[in-house]
Amino acid sequence: MEPSTHERGRFYVGPNGFPRFAGSASGVYLADTVRSDLTSKDHPTPDPGIEDAFIHRNNDEPRSDETALYDIYLLRSKDMLEEDLLRTRLNRYFAIWHPLFPFLDGAYLLQCFNNSLKLAEIHKMVQSNDPDKRDDGLTFDQISAFEGLTPEQSLALTTIFLVIFTIGGLGIDETGSNVDSASKIPTIHSTSQATMLGHLVVGACQNSRIPDLFGIQALLAIELLLYVRRTYRPAMHLSGVITKLAYEAGLHRCPERYATTFKEATDRDLRKRVFNSLYVLDRLLSADFGIPLMLNDSDIDTCIPGGPEKHALSEV
What we know:
This protein is an all-alpha fold. It has helices at 27-38, 50-56, 64-67, 83-96, 106-129, 151-168, 179-182, 191-206, 212-228, 232-249, 265-289, and strands spanning 10-13, 19-22.
């Protein structure tokens, strides 16, 4: 991906507190530019108008009957009891697939994984000592695997781990004594299940209940699973949605150009890794179907992660 574009554009803080990109051809960028030029000590700041509409759109509070849809899919504490098998699948995924598509934050996911295992053991012990005991009104089968997260955050994290456990289990010989234990491993069993998870994550992104980058990571995980399983058409359709979300999140712009927006080197690296994974999958799917690319090099200047950095760290 060469830095073939010189579009400026700006990042704005979205309703979930994370940056969103407005290109120089967008109404919000033009309105903001005009307002900046007109603003002076002697003149009040004009009404933000379209910028407000851009930042706050689709910031609806989810209804309880909508978030209840998540319950069918969310990982529970009881799903995290087979530690050895789960850890094997986690390790296999990161050893085999992560180097090819490094869009996940391994350190964060490992921390979440270990915390969930400890939580599951605690709840199992409490349940064994007193089968009728409830934790905050919930039985053992109802307790979330991820403590302290919103339903939408748990949905995205559940999606990522289900993909990891599914792809990480490919090719494992589960004959013999491990069959019963392996049957308890939470995985994605069908394309319909994967598609429904994708719809729910997209909804969480649209109502700004999860960070855009986190939602894109969860959707990319589903796309990778669909590609690995050779269900290419659903993968291609999902790729189109992710591409638009990636543009909105500004992943096509090299984070090294925006020093005040992306201050941490680890954050800048993760953004590059997420976008590069999406870019590669777009090429693979387009080649398989012989259809036009979703991501054109003329629209992109994000540098390849780990490769030569073509941009000095500066804000444009």
